[in-house]
Structures are given as C-alpha cells and as structure tokens.
Amino acid sequence: MSGTEMNGVEVNGTEKGVPERNGAVQPGATSQEIYDAGMVVRREVLGSAHVDRANATKDEFTEDFQDMITRIAWGGIWTRPGLTRQMRSAVTITAMVAHGHWDELAMHICAAITNGLSRDEIKEILLQTAIYCGVPSANTAFKTAQQVFHEMDSTAMDSTEMDAKESDQPTTPTPPN
After folding, report:
1. What are phi and psi of 169, to 5 degrees?
2. What pLDDT is recorded for position 160?
3. For residue 171, is pLDDT > 70?
4. pTM score, two decimals?
5. What pairs with residue 10 in β-bridges?
6. Which of 67, 75, 145, 150 could form a cystine bridge with 34, CB 3.0-4.6 A?
7. DSSP state of 82
8. Neighbours of 38 (CB within 10 A)
9. 15-28 as b/e, with b when 16 or more CB fall inside 10 Å?
10. What region does 134 belong to: left with phi over 0, alpha with psi -120 to 50, or beta?
11. 6 forms bridges with which residues in the sheet?
C-alpha cells in the first residue's frame, strides 16, 4: 500500500480494496480530510498566492463561503479521478463564459495554463463557446484571455529583466520550447 492511511483511506483517496471513484469524498472521510484535500488541489490549481489572498480577506461574513468552496468544489469535485485537470479546466472555462463570470474566467484561464492546457487549446475552447454560448460572450472571453496572456507575458518579461539586472547580464529572450 502506498501513501498514508487515514480511517482506512489512503491519502491518494483509495479505500482499502475498493477502487478510487470519489476522490477525497470516500466513505469515512471527515469534513476536515475533505477540506484538506481540497486545499491541496486549490493551491495546486490556483496557486498559493491566490489562495492566501482569498483567505487573508475572509471575515466572519465570508468565512463559511470560503470553507464551502474548499470542501465542496475543490475537495468534493476537483479531487475526483473521472476527469483530468485539463478537462476540468475546459469545462470550467466554458461555464464561466456561459454565465459571463469574467473575473472568474481570467482566474481559470491562468489555472488552465497551470493545469497543462496550451494557449491554442484555450483558444479552441473559446471558439467552441462562440457556438454554444454566443458570439458576444466569446468576444468578451477572447478579450479576457488576451489580457490574461498579456499580463502573464509582462510578468514573465519583468521577471527575466529583474533576473538579468541582478546578475548584471543583458536580457536575452528565451527561445520557445
């Protein structure tokens, strides 16, 4: 058996002798175990800086909401083995476009890159949304993605420039992989 065991459930979510099918929501899993597994995935997908900012701004009014999304969305859904993280990102991007949640779309475009989707794959997802969610929504989604990619490129450039200044070496562009 690999991994640490808690209440007959391995950390990777597999109950002894039972195939994994429910992610962190295994029989006997405590709410805290589901929350902890959700927090791991939330940090892996969105980044610790984002999660730390969200937790730093929570108060008595928003604390229950933050707990709920960590346990239910991240612990209950994102830990399930039935879809890859890339597929979950594609579905989430589509849902954000369909409902016009542009700030969340920007966040999940970054998450999709973290999850291994390429910019071309994200473009294809957004083209698909034009047909099923409407051209005006896809138009806004493309503008949102364009802005996210520009910010990512600027941040990468700023980091490259900062590294070059620290080493007193001229900045040279990194060739694409």
Report:
1. -105, 150
2. 52
3. no
4. 0.76
5. 5
6. 75
7. S
8. 25
9. beeeebebbbbbee
10. left
11. 9
Q: What pLDDT, on a 0 to 100 scale, did the predictor assign at position 16? A: 53
Evaluate if residue 173 carries a pLDDT over 60: no
Has residue 12 got a pLDDT over 60? no
Cα torsion 144, 105, 46, 3: sign: negative
Q: What is the pLDDT of residue 161?
A: 56
Q: At 110, list the tokens.
A: 């970054």
Provide mean pLDDT across the span 13-28.
Answer: 69
Long-range contacts for 47-55 (Cβ within 8 Å, ≥24 apart)? 47/110, 47/114, 50/107
Distance of CA 153 to the CA centre of its chain: 19
